[in-house]
Amino acid sequence: MPNACLRVNSMSPQSQTYQLSGTHLVHGDRGSGSEAAPISVASPFRTVSHGDPKGVEAMDPDKHIYSRYSQDVTSRVEQILSKVNHGYAVTYASGLAAAFSALVHFKPKRIAISRGYTGCHGAISTYTKGRFVDTPIVDLDDEFQEGDLCWLESPLHPTGESRNIQYYADKIHAVGGKLFVDSTLGPPPLQYPFKWGADCVLHSGIKYFAGHSDLFCGILVVKTEDERKQLWHDRAHMGNIMGSMDSWLLIRSLRTMHLRVSRQSASGTELVQWLSRAVVPEGQEYDGIPGGVITKVGHSSLQETDANGFNPSAQMEGGFNAYFSILLSKEEYAEKLPHALDHFHVPATSLGGVESLAVQHIRTDPKENPLLVCLSIGVEEVADLKNDLRRALVEISKGI
Ligand SMILES: *Cc1c(COP(=O)(O)O)cnc(C)c1O
Known about the structure:
five-stranded mixed β-sheet; Aspartate Aminotransferase, domain 1; Aspartate Aminotransferase, domain 2; alpha/beta; 11 helices; seven-stranded mixed β-sheet; single chain; binds pyridoxal-5'-phosphate; 2 domains; PyrdxlP-dep_Trfase
């Protein structure tokens, strides 16, 4: 391949060091022009210069023909994303466009999926509707068969708890199937699903990679150049490449991703630990939070080692997720809490941005538990977020 920047380490997943390098985020797209990427919204490019009868090859990411295939700012973004995801990254117009493209790529005989982000279930049903053969949907805990695609989301919507990636990798590989991991809630440096046996990784880039709630992007990461080429060709013909302006905004965002995500993870985990201590009976209190209001906090950091010996702390080597859930004792509390908060945006269908968000989950999925509130933690001062939560919890418990 002509583009040396897209070449990544070919060592085995276990022997590689996985980290989110600030140097890669800041300089990973060097060699293709200025330090800050220029805004470019060009679509057709001049491909054949006078006197050069050969023209260019569409697969060369440095030579652009038509922005449905590639263009400079998107290729720059993909160079950085390939490095920081330790694989080969291809970008899409949205997370769901990436999810759909993965289905087209894997052509599964059956799909094993349980719970998780509602939109992915929608993408799967849209995909299966368009097929002539039945593509049954089975549960993650059912027996797997050859040709299955195991679709694993971890950490998981809406609870914020983790699943054992290695366990599902072993289970699906034993029958010759593939493991697809939706790692949106666990971006680098929090976890690296390839290390635990994933075959393909999805990120909804609008969440932590973008971090500023202002662009749309989906990312698929694969392990070989050959798979990248296949995805690239499919994308060229499905026409679902990420837009130029979004690519430009994403480069801007990536420069600080390591600072944002680590901070969000640390603040989120601190809040989780603090709130979990307030799960006390009515009449008691913890640090000013009245008891009897919160009945459970859901988060990877609170998960105990399970029967298979799984504990999320090894899998989430770079920090726990910055997204978690709390279960309240009354529906009225869950309805009021997000609105009683000053430093959290409401209602929040998205997550992962620099601003904290809170939503009663039933607002985004009517089938969910009305007592559940989901919180995404941003980069505000954690002391302010605590004060805000404490005050709001006191107010709702008094019916203010
Ligand atoms: C947001 C999200 C998606 C979908 O991504 P879009 O960019 O909104 O299309 C998929 N999976 C998870 C876990 C998400 O949070």
